[in-house]
Amino acid sequence: MDPVTLEVIKGAIRSARQEMATLIERTSMSQSIREKLDYFAAIFDRNGRMVSGTDLPLGANIIDVITEHYPPEDMRPGDLYWYNDCYASRGGVSHSPDLVLIAPVFYEGNLVAFSEAWGHLQDIGGLAPGSNSPLSTEIYHEGIIMPPTRLEREGIRNEELFQVFVRNSRYPDTLKGDVRALIAAVRLGETRIKEICERFGKDVAMSAFECLIEQTCEGIRQFVDDNIPDGIYSFEDWLDGDVYQDRSFAIRLTLTKKKDNLSFDFTKSDNQCRGTLNFIMDESVPKLMLGVYAMSYNPTLLTNDGCCRALGQVHIREGSILDPKFPAPLGQRTATWLRVNSCLFGAIGKASKGRVPASSPYMAIVTYRWPKDNPSQFGFAFDGLAIGHGARPFADGHDAIFYIGQRDMPVEYSELEFPFRVEQYAIHMDSGGPGKFRGGCGIIRDYRILRDGLIARHTMDNVLYPPWGVAGGDYGRPGRFILNPDTPSSKDLPAKGDNLKLLEGDVLRAMTCGGGGWGNPYERDPLLVLDDTRCGMVSREAAQTDYGVIIDEDMAMDKDATSHIRKEVPL
Asked: Per-residue pLDDT for 571 more than 70?
């Protein structure tokens, strides 16, 4: 294809997908989508292969389950399909609050593409408000399960089916608003794809889809060839544990590179757990993870099925924590997903002599629920807390960032809407792993409770197994939850818990984890350590013990003492 035309179509597809995402953000109603940006929009070709998606590698097998139940030849313009069934979709959606909506796109009577979006709904029923309690022991505790189903036929909605779904939510009006936002985004994507076909012609547009997938494929193959020599590279990382079993869970990866084939073997990972850490991992997940990382070196590529085409087989064992048997709960699967990512980076780090970022922790989450005037109704607040990200081979890790493509919950929004006050929002000093490049720091957030009857849920990981460093960099420092800190009744809380009853005046403190460091800490520029200390990232004590930099009470560096102590430690 003419390269100029291809780049113009690529830009149009990028723009269309971004428009879809912006529409979701600006028209949704729940805090999880509107404020935290927990959603996804993508465009797929007529064969269900992703052409352009966001840089959130949770899987590319989103369309497959729909075309298995509804053959494409029976689809019509105006049809709309939806599901949140994790097991039926084999991980196409990975926990129940994520609702997928899909529209086939027709041009001149021919199926040319699919427009898709999903969003994390605030509540779909289940054990507790939010549909995501760490106390769940089966997926039925995590809300209503909608199998792959046609919601609209030629634009006419099945209102009875829609009402059944809405009736299972504790917050039906919010759920309706979010679903309508997702539908609007899918319809917008449908319109933009038709416009591309109208402008360039159907055959040119469909040929461009294939070229863009192949373009990404070639880019990923080149990255693998340049950075991963032939060999076998193994790595393991650990989840702290769930709330039921007194043990941790290992994710184990063996990466094998042989000529132009790179395969992934996760079969030695631990068995599924009783709690909510299980993750139905489609084989596209680690491929997209590697692809997104490779694209940081070539941002002209689209996140698409080319990542899957470029890479070899993924082996996963049934009954493991990465392929649990029904009806295992899946609510906290993000913690496991991040440890998969950690293992992948760890294995690539072995292959590339440390040319990867250090490990990043799982984000911390706090939710609150409280009874309203009607005892059968509950208020609900969700707060996803920022963590520190792993240092990179060329720069420090990001401080106080929640997650890829998402954002922290604004304090102003929380205090306006919910019965608590945020009395401290600060950097968690010394949480970033020491290194030539420092791991990102987590945060401290104090919630002052303003009424009796609030019930809290709190989760974090990487407390027992903090994020590892690379090339001599140290581990990130773990986080913790504390009830009523700095008082005689101060109490450390477990890393994962639910049903914490709070009274007016109580303070819940969340201190989140930092990322791992990269490189020998004694190779860090002393002026950067001084700057970190003045900015509250590193304490004076840690500057000396971790970096060999002596800083006095006036926040001035003692150059002679620093030079002396650093000479005592061999690099």
From this structure: no
Q: What are phi and psi of 85, to 5 degrees?
A: -85, 105
Exposed, middle or buried by CB within 10 Å (0-12, 13-18, 19+), for 106?
Answer: buried
Cα–Cα distance between 311 and 64 in angstroms, integer? 19
pLDDT band at 5 (very low <50, low <70, confident <90, very high): very high
The whole-angstrom distance between residue 520's C-alpha and the CA centroid of its chain comes to 29
381: nearest Cα among 419, 407, 410:
419
Q: What is the CA radius of gyration of the chain?
A: 24
Count Cα atoms within 13 angstroms, Cβ side, for 12. 21
Read off the pLDDT of residues 429-468 as tens digits, 9 standing for 90 and up.
999 999 999 999 999 999 999 999 999 999 999 999 999 9
What CA–CA distance (Å, rounded) separates 227 from 348? 8
Asked whether the beta carbons of 387 and 359 are under 8 A apart, the reply is no
Token duo for residue 198: 């109208």
Examine the pLDDT at 76 and tell me if it is beyond 90.
Answer: yes
Give the pLDDT band of residue 570 (cuts 50, 70, 90): low
Side-chain half-sphere of 298: how many Cα atoms within 13 Å?
16
Omega of the bond prior to 327 within 30 degrees of 0, cis? yes
Is 480 within 8 Å of 492 (Cβ atoms)? yes
Measured CA to CA, the distance from residue 511 to residue 569 in angstroms comes to 32
For residue 85, give Cα distances in angstroms to 94, 120, 271, 330, 466.
8, 13, 22, 11, 32
Contact between residue 216 and residue 304 where contact means Cβ atoms under 8 Å apart? yes
DSSP reduced 3-state for 424: strand
- Give the separation between CA 288 and CA 303, rounded to whole angstroms: 8
- Taking the C-alpha atoms of residue 79 and residue 45, their distance in angstroms, rounded to an integer, is 16
- Kindly state the helix (H) or strand (E) to which residue 236 belongs, with its residue range: strand 231-239
For the chain, the farthest-separated pair of C-alpha atoms sits apart, in whole angstroms, at 79
- Report how far residue 333's alpha carbon sits from residue 336's, in angstroms, rounded to the nearest whole number: 5
Query: Cβ neighbours of residue 382 under 8 Å, at least 6 residues apart?
Result: 31, 32, 36, 122, 130, 365, 367, 409
570 Cβ contact list (under 8 Å, min separation 6):
none
DSSP letter at 401 equals: B
253 is written with which tokens? 């990866």
Neighbouring residues of 137: CB distance < 8 A, sequence distance ≥ 6: 244, 274, 275, 329
CA atoms 290, 293, 295, 298: torsion sign: negative
Residues 517 and 469: beta-carbon distance below 8 Å: yes
Going by DSSP bridges, is the β-strand pair 156-157/231-239 parallel, antiparallel, or unpaired?
unpaired
CA dihedral 74, 75, 79, 83 (to 10 degrees): 80
One-letter amino acid at 218 equals E
**Has this prediction a pTM greater than 0.85?**
yes
Ordered strands of the 496-502 beta sheet: 378-385, 364-371, 454-459, 496-502
Pair type for strands 496-502 and 454-459: antiparallel
Q: For the sheet containing 156-157, what is the strand order?
A: 50-52, 39-45, 110-120, 98-107, 80-83, 149-153, 156-157
| DSSP strand pairing (261-265 vs 314-315) | parallel
Instruction: Tell which phi-psi region holds residue 405, choosing left (phi > 0), alpha (psi between -120 and 50) or beta.
Output: left
Q: Is the Cβ–Cβ distance between 358 and 473 less than 8 Å?
A: yes
